[in-house]
């Protein structure tokens, strides 16, 4: 019997979207939908596995912005309001579909789903999802890691090493503040790597990170040689490559599992099907159609008329796909073990939001995979990368090449004609922040100045999020992405101006602190660069 | 328990004014945030959510004075309106960003008034970007560095540019070309490090240029030797320290040839290459 390991990593990240300056704000739904469809179902999966004493290992990367939002009291309160509306809409649907029993059955299912979400969030978890993830971590099944502070795309922030260092440092500090321990692993935003980045990770106490498979493969090194084992960089930090086969099976729109015709269709939503008058209270401004989360159809086929969603059929198919996935992993291991002395590891990272939001049945699939992997008869075992490294220390040294998991494997998706305008501004703000920090770090500043400088640092970090150039390129919510970047840069400009002119308006400062209230422990002094390798601003 | 049993000294008397002042201070500092008061939220079955505990006793930023929603919005809008980022018009700017092992992304901001003497002529020449190669990732450059020029399109502020060698650093200046390939620079860029193209074993990289192993092991080397080596035979026996210059030279030659052959790359590469050392080579596209 051949032996090998499977490490599944879920990367949970959303950009910081929180608007206390409005009574409600549509983009906050990104978080609310993810809690309902992804994070709560994931906790349900972990609890069922715990109850059934399944021996499994899973890794969850929690981004600092997501951590900040999950612990935010305003967003928690608004989430309950969101659920209230969802339940109300589902009840309205039960009435509307009373002459269509098959639809009504689904409407009832949605009502139960939203009521359970409400009950879980409020009663079982007391609004504190992080505490639950931490509990599963303490049970030994769930490895928790983190990523850069605002998910800044590090290869393009590398114009300033201080920017990269602070993205990593503030990210890890936030994780430690909320989870109570230091992560050993680090998720590079968008899998964006450049040679030398490992030095900053090492400095921050990180033991391992991940890259895309092509970062480790070349004409000299085949994927077989590199992706299915750990490697050491010359500073001792370990790197793991993403398994391309696992990515294809789960990610690919054409060949991947989520595209199966039995699964729930994401894009067909009552928000686009029913009368505006009926939908009014549940859509944007009562006029703009949006996803409501109530969807009655299955994918059915590429161009065919959509058929009604059958939850049982979909869950059965998720079980079949889980069996197929495990079988594929066993075959990969059997191929690998002939060529390497130590058992291979298959590293399968995914966006956590795929499971439940885009792929409604994803959490069920994941649960079945973890159950099936806990079968002593075959040689496959789930693990996390830290445990693997402890069991099988690596000796070979390698320098991966620069890479990302984006289009063409490079930085192209985050710098192109749709979004390149942001970089001179980001670079200028970073350089100005560094100069401010260096000018003032050794001087005594009063409390108001200290708060202003720290808020300026928050504004710079928020402007650096990889989400905004990504959205500009994908064309999904471009106006909002543009606004967020320019707002954060404007806030930085204002704070910079206030400090330089020594004219701080505390009312304005409080407003900015209230709106961008993450990273409470940030220290502007860490923005003083170790050298002056910054752009000439 | 009565007050007298609490251990507090009831003999400390506070005036009405003092008590009012303390009361106000406590109200101002510790009153619940309207936005954060989750106990106000009721769900469908009428139950309440318990207010989550504050973690670690830390105050989030924004504590203290509370602002109403409309006040927050007003301030947010005022800051966005009055401090929106804008391109600098005070001085020209130039930024290089790494895209992949073969490309940099150049972004510039140069106003006509910021150009030199030729700016008022009717048909000014296009701006030129001069990209200097910084071998060994050196942090500065001078006129002895190898460089190549690329004309920049008018009415644009950015351009993707193909570079000859990966795993090294570049810097650039922007300006107007003068006679004999001279350049009047108006802005200088940052230094950009371009990653290597291939995975490397750390045991094989001592004292070797990042790009050399790739170059030596590919068909391109053979093609370059065949096409360019004979014409420039004096490069064959150059000293080891100049091997990188030879590589740069041959790579640039190959790119020029590709550019001439394949028009689809014309917008991402360069039109001329020159080297200002003891020997002077100039390639021009037509």
**β content of chain A, as a range?**
5-15%
List the secondary-structure elements of chain A in sequence, H or E.
EHEHHHHEHHEHEHEEHHHHEHEHHHHHH
Give the overall shape of chain B, derived from the CA principal axes. Answer: extended
Structural class of chain A: alpha/beta
**Approximately how much beta-strand content do the residues of chain B carry?**
15-25%
Description of the molecule:
The complex is a heterodimer of chains A (537) and B (286). Helices cover 49% and strands 8% of the residues of chain A. In chain A, strands 1, 2, 3, 4, 5, 6, 7, 8 and 9 form a nine-stranded mixed beta sheet that branches. The radius of gyration of chain A is 24 Å and the shape is globular. Chain A folds into two domains: 4-71 and 128-259 and 319-408, Glycoside hydrolase 38, N terminal domain (7-stranded beta/alpha barrel, Alpha-Beta Barrel), CATH 3.20.110; 415-527, Up-down Bundle (immunoglobulin/albumin-binding domain-like), CATH 1.20.1430.10. Chain A is built from 20 helices and nine strands. In chain A, helix 16 (422-440) packs antiparallel against helix 17. Chain A has helices at 29-51, 64-70, 73-96, 101-124, 129-138, 154-157, 161-179, 197-203, 223-226, 244-251, 270-273, 276-279, 311-337, 362-373, 385-391, 422-440, 447-463, 467-474, 478-500, 506-515; strands at 4-12, 58-62, 142-147, 185-187, 208-211, 231-232, 238-241, 345-351, 380-382. In chain A, strand 1, helix 1 (29-51) and strand 2 form a beta-alpha-beta unit. Chain B is an alpha+beta fold and 286 residues long. Chain B has helices at residues 16-30, 69-82, 212-217, 219-227, 243-261; strands spanning 93-100, 103-109, 127-134, 147-151, 158-162, 168-177, 183-188, 192-194, 272-276, 280-284. In chain B, strands 3, 4, 6, 7, 8, 9 and 10 form a seven-stranded antiparallel beta sheet that branches. In chain B, a hairpin with a 3-residue loop joins strand 9 (272-276) and strand 10 (280-284). Chains A and B meet through helix 3, helix 4, helix 16, helix 17 and helix 19 of A and helix 2, strand 1 and strand 2 of B.
């Amino acid at each position: 019997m051949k032996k090998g390991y499977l490490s599944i990593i879920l990367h949970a990240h959303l950009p910081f979207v929180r608007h206390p300056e409005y009574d409600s704000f549509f983009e906050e739904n990104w978080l609310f939908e993810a809690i309902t469809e992804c994070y709560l179902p994931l906790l349900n999966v972990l609890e069922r596995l715990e109850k059934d004493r399944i021996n499994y290992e899973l890794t969850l990367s929690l981004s600092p912005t997501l951590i900040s939002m999950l612990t935010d009291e305003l967003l928690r309160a608004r989430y309950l309001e969101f659920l209230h509306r969802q339940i109300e809409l589902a009840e309205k649907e039960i009435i509307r579909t009373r002459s269509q029993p098959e639809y009504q059955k689904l409407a009832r299912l949605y009502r139960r789903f939203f009521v359970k979400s409400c009950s879980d969030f409020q009663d079982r978890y007391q609004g504190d999802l992080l505490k639950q993830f931490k509990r599963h971590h303490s049970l030994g099944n769930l490895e928790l890691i983190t990523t850069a502070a605002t998910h800044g795309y590090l290869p393009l922030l590398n114009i300033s090493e201080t920017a990269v260092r602070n993205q990593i440092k503030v990210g890890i500090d936030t994780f430690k503040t909320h989870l109570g321990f230091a992560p050993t692993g680090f998720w590079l935003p968008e899998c964006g790597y450049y040679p030398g980045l490992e030095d900053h990770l090492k400095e921050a106490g990180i033991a391992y990170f991940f890259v895309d498979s092509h970062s480790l493969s070349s004409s000299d090194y085949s994927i077989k040689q590199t992706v299915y084992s750990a490697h050491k960089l010359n500073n001792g930090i370990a790197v793991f490559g993403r398994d391309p086969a696992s990515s294809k099976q789960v990610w690919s729109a054409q060949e991947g599992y989520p595209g199966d015709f039995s699964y729930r269709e994401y894009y067909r939503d009552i928000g686009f099907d029913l009368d505006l008058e009926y939908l009014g209270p549940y859509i944007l401004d009562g006029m703009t159609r949006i996803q409501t989360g109530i969807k009655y159809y299955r994918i059915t086929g590429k161009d065919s008329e959509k058929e009604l969603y059958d939850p049982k059929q979909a869950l059965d198919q998720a079980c079949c796909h889980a069996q197929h996935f495990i079988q594929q992993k066993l075959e990969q291991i059997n191929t690998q073990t002939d060529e390497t002395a130590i058992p291979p590891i298959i590293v399968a990272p995914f966006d956590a939001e795929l499971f439940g939001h885009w792929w409604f049945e994803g959490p069920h699939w994941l649960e079945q995979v973890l159950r099936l992997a806990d079968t002593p008869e075959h040689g496959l075992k789930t693990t996390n990368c830290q445990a693997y490294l402890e069991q099988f220390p690596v000796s070979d040294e390698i320098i991966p090449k620069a890479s990302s998991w984006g289009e063409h494997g490079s930085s192209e998706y985050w710098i192109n004609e749709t979004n390149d305008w942001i970089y001179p501004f980001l670079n200028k703000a970073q350089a100005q922040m560094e100069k401010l920090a260096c000018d003032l770090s050794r001087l005594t500043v009063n409390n108001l100045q200290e708060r202003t400088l720290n808020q300026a640092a928050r504004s710079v970090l928020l402007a650096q999020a990889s989400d905004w150039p990504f959205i500009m390129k994908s064309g999904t919510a471009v106006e909002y992405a543009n606004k967020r970047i320019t707002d954060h840069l404007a806030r930085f400009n204002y704070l910079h101006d206030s400090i330089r002119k020594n004219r701080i308006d505390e009312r304005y400062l409080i407003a900015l602190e209230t709106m961008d209230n993450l990273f409470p422990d940030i220290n502007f002094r860490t923005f003083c660069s170790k050298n002056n390798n910054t752009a000439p601003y | 328990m009565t007050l007298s049993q609490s251990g507090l000294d009831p003999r400390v008397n506070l005036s009405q004014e003092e008590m009012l002042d303390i009361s106000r201070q406590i109200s101002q500092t510790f009153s619940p945030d309207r936005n954060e008061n989750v106990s106000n939220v009721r769900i469908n079955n009428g139950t309440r959510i318990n207010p989550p505990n504050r973690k670690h006793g830390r105050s989030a930023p924004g504590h203290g004075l509370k602002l109403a929603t409309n006040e927050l919005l007003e301030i947010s809008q005022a800051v966005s309106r009055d401090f929106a980022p804008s391109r600098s018009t005070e001085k020209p700017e130039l930024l290089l960003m790494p895209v992949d092992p073969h490309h940099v992304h150049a972004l510039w901001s140069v106003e006509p008034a910021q150009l030199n003497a030729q700016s008022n002529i009717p048909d000014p020449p296009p701006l030129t970007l001069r990209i200097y190669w910084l071998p060994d990732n050196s942090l500065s450059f001078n006129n002895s560095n190898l460089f190549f020029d690329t004309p920049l399109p008018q009415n644009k502020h950015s351009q993707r540019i193909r570079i000859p060698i990966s795993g090294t650093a570049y810097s650039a200046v922007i300006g107007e070309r003068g006679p004999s390939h001279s350049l009047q620079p108006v802005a200088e860029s940052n230094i950009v490090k371009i990653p290597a193209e291939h995975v490397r074993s750390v045991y094989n990289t001592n004292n070797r240029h990042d790009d050399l192993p790739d170059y030596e092991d590919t068909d391109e080397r053979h093609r370059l030797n065949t096409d360019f080596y004979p014409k420039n035979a004096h490069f064959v026996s150059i000293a080891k320290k100049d091997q990188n210059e030879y590589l740069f030279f041959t790579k640039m030659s190959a790119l020029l040839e590709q550019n001439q052959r394949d028009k689809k790359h014309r917008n991402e590469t360069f039109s001329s290459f020159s080297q200002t050392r003891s020997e002077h080579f100039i390639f021009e596209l037509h």
